[in-house]
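Private note to self, pasted from the team thread so I don't lose it. Backbone tokens:
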């Protein structure tokens, strides 16, 4: 005996198929959205990377510039220290000469040191 489906049974069957397909589509879209989100979270943003690279490049250039200036300052301080030693020796010789009127050789040696220092600095 053949059983024919009634209108209510056909409607229920179509509704079950529609619900099943809707569930499949929703599940597929949710899985795809999660996959896209994970891919985007793992892949660095190219614009953000370019911005970071530019900032790093700027900082490295600035660091090199500051390093050069610090090197110049250090060299200047070393030269000033050397000059101060020569000048203090000269002042000491002048004080000795002022006290007793002697030690002309010490004055002459201090004068030669100052002249030598000035000649070396003027050649640079």
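Design output:
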């Amino acid at each position: 005996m053949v059983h024919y489906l009634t209108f209510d049974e056909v409607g229920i069957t179509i509704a079950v198929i529609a619900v099943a397909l809707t569930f499949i589509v929703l599940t597929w879209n949710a899985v795809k959205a999660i996959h896209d989100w994970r891919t985007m979270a793992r892949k660095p943003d190219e614009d953000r990377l370019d911005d970071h690279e530019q900032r790093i490049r700027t900082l490295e250039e600035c660091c090199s510039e500051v390093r050069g200036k610090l090197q110049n300052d250090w060299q200047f301080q070393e030269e000033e220290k050397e000059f101060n030693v020569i000048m203090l020796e000269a002042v000491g010789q002048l004080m000795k000469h002022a006290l007793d009127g002697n030690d002309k050789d010490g004055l002459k040696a201090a004068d030669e040191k100052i002249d030598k220092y000035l000649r070396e600095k003027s050649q640079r």
